[in-house]
Amino acid sequence: MREREFWELLEEVFGRSYGRSLSRDQQLTSLDGLTVVEALAAGIEPRVVWNVLCDQMDVPDARRWGADHNAPPLPAA
Fold it and tell me: How far, in Å, CA of 4 to CA of 1, rounded?
């Protein structure tokens, strides 16, 4: 997942205003309390940030990838 795709999904799943607010304000507990913006700036893979955000916000798998998106492959370990 590219960062551009991350932001598109954020707006699609959460809405433009709420999604942007979440990205600045929501602390991601499993990423040491970083916000989305901070986590991406720190170089954390966008897919990881997306999954952490969706898990924390209880977004079901059926909605997690939006209407026209397939789940991207997991990053290599």
Answer: 8
Q: What does the pLDDT look like over 23-68, one tens digit per residue?
A: 999 999 999 999 999 999 999 999 999 999 999 999 988 888 877 6
pTM of the model as a whole? 0.84
CA-to-CA distance for 1 and 32, rounded, in angstroms? 22
Phi, psi of 28 (to 5 degrees): -90, 105
The angle formed by the CA atoms of residues 40, 44 and 48, to the nearest 5 degrees, is 100
* 63-to-33, 47, 59 alpha-carbon distances in Å: 24, 15, 7
Question: What is the SS3 string spanning the chain?
Answer: CCHHHHHHHHHHHHCHHHHHHHHHHCCEHHHCCECHHHHHHCCCCHHHHHHHHHHHCCCCHHHHCCCCCCCCCCCCC
